[in-house]
Amino acid sequence: MSAPTSSPTGSPAGSPVGSPAGTPVNSRSRVLVASLIGTTIEFYDFYIYATAAVLVFPKLFFPSSDPTTALLSSFAVFGAAMVARPIGAVVFGHLGDRLGRKGTLVTSLLTMGIATFLIGVLPTYAQAGWVATALLVLMRLAQGFALGGEWSGAALVATENAPSGKRALFGTFPQLGAPLGFIIGNGLFLLMGALLPSAAGADPSQPSEAFLSWGWRVPFLFSAVMVAIGLWVRMRLVESPVFAKTREAGLVRKLPLVAVVRTHGRQLVLGTFFMLATYVLFYLMTTFSLSYGRTARDAAVPGLGYSYTTFVLMMIFGVVFFAVFTLVSGPLADRYGRRTTLAWVTAAIAVFGLVWVPLIGLGTLGVVLWLVLGFTLMGMTFGPMGALLPELFPTSMRYTGSGISYNVSSILGAAVAPFIAVALWEAGDGSPWLVGVYLSAMAVLTLVALLVGKETKDVRLEEGESAATPAADEAPVTVAP
């Protein structure tokens, strides 16, 4: 099928995409900002929690005579959010496919913002005992629940409003939130470490009493500002034209989850494995690399021995490449196809997993090269997902289907990654070569899924409704605008 020559609404390519003539439209800038702001907050929340899970939470919420046990306990709460994400994908997917994208995105963003802000005002274990730990777990579950509906909604805002031939490019803007969130989140922790230095200097990994008392809370409280901006932008959106047409045609499903499992189960599984290597690479390059980079060379399980500040600055340099190549991947996927682009990138990830130990062995230059290459591949694999996953499903179940694939993959590729990586790091006597093998193995699984799947570049987002005729007990229902 050749690429369509007009936007999904029939508007000339390049014009603002919205509802039929005479009704409000979403300008391109509004679409891009609205899709970008939510995922920026999502990944900002992830990074500040991941950083606090390494630096602060083991001391304040999981006291233990064994530092490794405290760290793993902190990571366990980190992983709990990943388990909650598929539940959020089902709930918010149901709302998004029944009631519309705009209202659902506002709700998910507000839920996420409240949970993140409340983490910043929690009592510590010393103040409230196990109640403090339980509240942290509860807020983290609330974060995961909200995030389960955030990504797919943001991706749909971008792709369902994209002009012809630029769907993958527009789909990279939600993905761009990952590097931006990293820079903002880690930048704030570095700033707080500089403003509240300990005897060891401006290094958050050696926190001062003030940093442990209140300094770590500032990044969590600051999320309220970002959420307020995000809500203001999203409240100005109008409903996507693709969903509006589905609603007008009476094709809204009563139970989108039932419909997508019955009619698009294969796409759910493939979408989950499409994201697997992306998730593993993402969490290894952020969470694991931070632990490995700052662990002393003479530790029981040796690391690279960099100070927290030095290594995070090196990571931020690498994340710039993450941002640049996220945007680069969009035009490539629009021109050559999502499947072809991702197949080549995934093969490169498999090779990268086998060569990163020799790179690290070259010294600081090699470590920087490892980070640059890893984050470059991250941008290239993450960018096209903003278009690929939504394209697997028809409009009436797109929010649910893309959200489930994205978030179930987070369990397989992210929730368990910190534990697997630490175990393999220890098994390798301090060398992360087994961690690299793990990454390569996950990349092979993703490559197989891509080879089995089909190209979606030329799929029209309105198509597939009639092909997914509901069963007798799952008839579509018309929802009034």
Automatic annotation (TrEMBL):
Domain spans labelled Major facilitator superfamily (MFS) profile: 31-457
Region (Disordered): 1-24, 462-481
Primary subcellular site in the record, as a coarse category: membrane
Listed Gene3D superfamilies: MFS general substrate transporter like domains (1.20.1250.20)
Keywords noted in UniProt: Cell membrane, Membrane, Transmembrane, Transmembrane helix, Transport
CDD domains in the record: MFS_ShiA_like (cd17369)
Localization of this protein: Cell membrane
Membrane topology, record value: Multi-pass membrane protein
Residues that span the membrane, as ranges: 31-50, 70-92, 104-122, 128-147, 168-194, 214-233, 268-286, 306-329, 341-361, 367-392, 404-425, 431-452
PANTHER family linked to this entry: INNER MEMBRANE METABOLITE TRANSPORT PROTEIN YHJE, SHIKIMATE TRANSPORTER
Protein name: MHS family MFS transporter
Organism: Streptomyces nigra
